[in-house]
Design goal:
By secondary structure, this protein is an alpha/beta fold. Strands 1, 2, 3, 4, 5, 6 and 7 form a 7-stranded mixed beta sheet that branches. Bound molecules: guanosine-5'-triphosphate (GTP) and magnesium ion (MG). Magnesium ion binds next to α1. Guanosine-5'-triphosphate binds next to α1.
């Protein structure tokens, strides 16, 4: 069986749900109680958070193992106090990590209940581009989270999705329209999470770095 490996980087403002969704994506068979505990225990991230998951996926009739590495950072950019750590401080330390040379999947998360977090995604895409994370083999998923609190504005979300494609294209990276997905999730209601998990594992199974089987690249 071949194994494909790839990294997933969630990006977005503070409190949009990056840490929580990463836990839910990692753990496929989480009970309702466990999920509510993850939501209730969520704290502002003060360091890089790493998780690892393995998913079996069928690709053209053969089973492929997708080995998925999640790297999550604090969404905070401004320094709030001497003890809080910002995105840039963390990322500067971890820049040498090989898995951070590029991302196979970028999750651009915002909180549907705070519309300015959707506008902020323009800045987060810029950060990703500056870091060189967006490559022709990168899947971008625009995640509208907390839909239990506020249903997203479909037209505005689509406008932002198109804007992301335009920006990436202007950066000189070739990206197809179906490489920037839009997904609606609620971590609280457990809706849309399975879909995002499949997006990630299917993409990494097909486009990840190959090990194991001879002839695979
Ligand atoms: N109602 C609701 N609350 C959610 C949802 N997802 C996350 N939350 C809550 O939102 C808060 C922030 O979630 P986190 O995962 O810590 O957010 P984060 O993006 O990691 O934030 P930073 O670590 O500060 O960057 C927590 O209190 C979560 O319980 C959701 O879908 N619905
Ligand atoms: Mg966090």
């Amino acid at each position: 069986m071949s194994v494909k490996t790839g990294s997933v980087i969630p990006l977005g403002d503070g409190s949009v749900g990056k840490s929580v969704i990463m836990q839910l994506l990692k753990e496929k068979s989480m009970s309702d109680e466990q999920r509510i505990a993850v939501l209730n225990d969520a704290r502002k991230s003060k360091n890089i958070e790493m998780e690892f998951a393995m998913e079996k996926v069928m690709v053209e009739g053969t089973e492929v193992k997708a080995s998925i590495q999640y790297y999550n950072f604090p969404g905070q950019i401004q320094k709030e106090s001497a003890t809080t750590v910002t995105f840039d401080e963390i990322i500067n330390i971890f820049e040498f990590l090989p898995a951070l040379k590029d991302a196979h999947v970028l999750l651009l998360l915002y909180d549907t209940n705070r519309i300015y977090t959707l506008k902020s995604l323009e800045n987060w895409v810029k950060v990703a581009a500056q870091k060189g994370w967006i490559k022709p083999h990168t899947l971008v998923v625009l995640v509208s989270n907390k839909t239990d609190l506020q249903p997203p504005n479909d037209e505005f979300v689509e406008e932002v999705r198109k804007g992301i494609i335009q920006f990436i294209t202007n950066e000189g990276v070739t990206i197809a329209d179906n490489q920037v997905l839009s997904r609606y999730t609620s971590c609280k209601m457990n809706s849309g999470i399975d879909e995002v998990r499949s997006d990630i594992s299917n993409w990494i199974a097909a486009n990840g770095l190959g090990f194991g089987q001879s002839g695979s690249s």
